[in-house]
């Protein structure tokens, strides 16, 4: 499993990178055929405080799963995107079981 974290126009601290790796590694409990995780962090130039965006792409056989979230911090945005991916995985598993 390969975790790629890309930041646009800033450098992420080690604490943030470790937090993201821990959060996305949780998804491995739900799906065992994950090839890699691709996380992109960026700051939107908006006037609101919710300007941190986390995009997560799960590379799996077949169609990849994608989630994006916007929040006040990258930690919150990443947690929300991981939650959205968990729901997508559950939905995909229920479709496959039919």
Task: Summarize the helices and strands and which ones pair or pack.
Layout (H helix, E strand, L loop, with lengths): L1 E6 L6 H12 L10 E8 L8 E8 L5 E7 L2 H23 L2
Helix pairs in contact: 1-2
In short:
By secondary structure, the protein is α+β, with helices and mostly antiparallel strands.
Question: Key terms for this structure?
Answer:
alpha+beta; globular; 4-stranded mixed beta sheet; single chain; 98 residues; 4 strands
Describe this structure in words.
- This protein is α+β, with helices and mostly antiparallel strands.
- It has a domain at 35-74.
- Helix content is 36%, strand content 30%.
- The protein has helices at residues 14-25, 74-96; strands spanning 2-7, 36-43, 52-59, 65-71.
- A four-stranded mixed β-sheet has the order 1-2-3-4, with helices on one face.
- A hairpin with a 5-residue loop joins strand 3 (52-59) and strand 4.
- It comes from Flavihumibacter stibioxidans.
- InterPro entries: RHF-like, RHF/RaiA.
- This is Ribosomal subunit interface protein.
State the total count of DSSP E strands.
4
Shape: globular
Uncertain parts: none
Q: Order of helices and strands, N to C? A: EHEEEH
Q: What is the alpha-carbon Rg in Å?
A: 14 Å
Overall mean pLDDT score?
91
Tell me about the biggest sheet? 4 strands, mixed
Helix count, DSSP H or I runs of 4 or more residues? 2
* Range of strand content: 25-35%
Distance between the termini: 28 Å
Strand order of the largest sheet: 1-2-3-4
* Fraction of residues in H or I helices: 25-40%
Structural class: alpha+beta
InterPro entries: RHF-like, RHF/RaiA
Organism: Flavihumibacter stibioxidans
Protein name: Ribosomal subunit interface protein
């Amino acid at each position: 499993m390969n975790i790629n974290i890309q930041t646009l126009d800033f450098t992420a601290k080690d604490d943030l990178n470790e937090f993201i790796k821990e959060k996305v590694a949780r998804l491995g409990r739900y799906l065992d055929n994950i090839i890699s995780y691709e996380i992109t962090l960026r700051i939107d130039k908006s006037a609101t405080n919710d300007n941190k965006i986390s995009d997560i792409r799960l590379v799996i056989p077949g169609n990849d799963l994608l989630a994006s979230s916007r929040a006040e911090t990258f930690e919150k945005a990443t947690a929300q995107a991981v939650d959205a991916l968990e729901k997508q995985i559950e939905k995909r598993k229920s479709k496959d079981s039919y």
